[in-house]
Amino acid sequence: MCNATTHPFIRVKNVDGARRGTWHGVMNCGHVHGCPVCSARIRAERAARVVAAVRGMGGRWQMLTLTVRHKHGMRLRELHRGLMAAWRKARQGGVIQRVWSARVRASVRATEVTHGANGWHPHLHVLLCTDGFDEDERLKLWVRFRDCVRVALGDDCVPSYERGMVWSEKALDGDSADDAEAARYVAKFACETAGVAKTRSKGKSETPWAVAERAAAGDTRALFLWREYLGAMHGRRAIELDDRAAAAADDWQERQREDGDAKREVDDAERLEPTEVEVTRDELRSLRLFERKRPTIMHDVLVAAALHGASGVRDWVVVAQHETGTVPVPVVPRPIGWYARAG
Q1: pLDDT tens per residue across span 17-62
Q2: How far is 236 from 124, CA to CA, in rounded Å?
Q3: How far from 227 is each of 11, 26, 80, 82, 212, CA to CA, in Å?
Q4: Alpha helix (H) ranges present in 116-263?
């Protein structure tokens, strides 16, 4: 179970010519859909992979969001499977396959699920490396997707043109964007879909974490929904790069490591001797609580440990303690005679 600890500490050592920190003595379950702690960590790691793909491949990147019509009582498993099957089938065969092959150099997909008055609402966000689709090509893609939804889920789930397929107005130029700009563009695509730092999405819909929070408070209906969500999303990848995007990410990260080796001078003692930074259980608890406001805090602490050692970790711990109200009460020595009886 996440947050379980034995003797928590951070070990900093050289990896590929750079100082890197890793947590030890802290258990993580690794469930991207069922654990808010691991979800934030895993999605942040995969978001970094997406940024590497954007930087490595360059070109123009644009987001496409797809969904289906839904109503109260529909099962999430069937809705999600139908959405994924319809999108997969829509790109296969005929004119659309030729257009897709000509227009798309690489793609990354991420899933998002919310729950509202009309039941479960799955979304599919697709980040495309593309020069763009003209209006005729977009219309053909939409018609093909609509027909595939009808086959997979029936007429009741066929979405409208305005809501079923939405192209982002802003595109990212991977050739001119720096790491910070690429990270900001990818943040909505990857990290915000986790919904860790919020309980409500746009409108009146709830994120799965809001459902889980109500379930933990004793809401039996929310408990039923939470169990349904876990069952439907079990084994599903939250963020997935296609082969070309994954190859570009690997190539970019390898070049970054090589550049780090060439630029960074590390003496023999630093190469051979890893260092350890102790973290108490109370300090770790403060960091975990602060993770609700800052999902990347555990990674931020590792970066601080690698760059500044114990002092960098302490700075983040102090921030977490103040933000979460877990500042330890100082032990004040009692004056002589404090425990003496009066009179």
Answers
A1: 678 888 888 877 788 888 877 787 788 788 888 888 998 998 999 9
A2: 12
A3: 37, 26, 15, 20, 9
A4: 135-153, 161-164, 179-190, 208-216, 220-233, 243-263
